[in-house]
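Encode chain A's predicted structure.
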Amino acid sequence: MRVLFAGLASAGHTYPMVPLAIAARDAGHEVHFAAGEHVNASLDRLGLNPFRPADSFYEIYAEDLEPELARLRPDLVVHGWGVPEAAVAARRAGIPALWHGVGRMFPDGIGFERPTGGVHVDICPPSLQDEAFLATAERIALRPVPFAEPGPPARFERPLVYLTLGTAFGTPEVLGTAIEGLAALGSHVVVATGRVAPADLGTLPGNVTAAAWVPQAAVLPIAALVVHHGGSGTTLGALAAGVPQLVLPQGADQFANADALCAAGAALRLLPGELSADAVTEQARKAPSLRDAARVVAEEIAAMPSPAEVARELPKYAK
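Encoded structure for chain A:
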């Protein structure tokens, strides 16, 4: 069977789809991946046959994908929530398609069209998923698996606190405030600075290590606390590891994710108007009380079907 994956050219949208794409390839299916150039190098190293459809750089429009559907003639298209026009192209071509989620169904008004209809590969544990989506959508449950860029194994000191604001929302001011508050704990603090150059943070305390990129899949399982922006990938990765979280939402769906985490008892939250170094220190010191709730969600995630299990079921949805 030939499967075409299609996603936005961003780590937050493409990487959640990678575990299923790899599992489909390992199950013997021919896999191709349509996405903008930004993520093509990583997908190529994984042997997922990436390409940029037409002139797309971030989004994919129906007219971008239609010639590639005619060329590849896939049996099934699996496309991310962020590329709804891939569903349009597949429908016009008469090819079955599945939506692939990135986490919790995002709210209206954040700049993305909410997907409707069809069958959804849902990587969010039901206890945190949007109730209306759970009640109305046809879902294929899939365990979220943190994706790490191929590379040498990383080594970190224990115990540690992991801080990231993702690749799109970090600023020196917010990162600097969070670093100041976390450094006061005395633990080793590992910071993924994302779009902020580490040099822009100035001189860091001795117990803080900062790099533009950190292999998140390696650091999450050994973290005592994850402090982050509320992006879906970090949220689900920390939940899967059973790690307490402190969420500093900045935009998009991050506020809704923070609300869901707090309702589950797995996280604390500081809104932008509440953020200060002292507040970060105070909330971080409360984090151990969240561990039991975080482990409950981790057990729920562990019980979800693995990518290999879902990949074996994909032929049921093909033409």
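The first strand starts at residue 2 and ends at 6.
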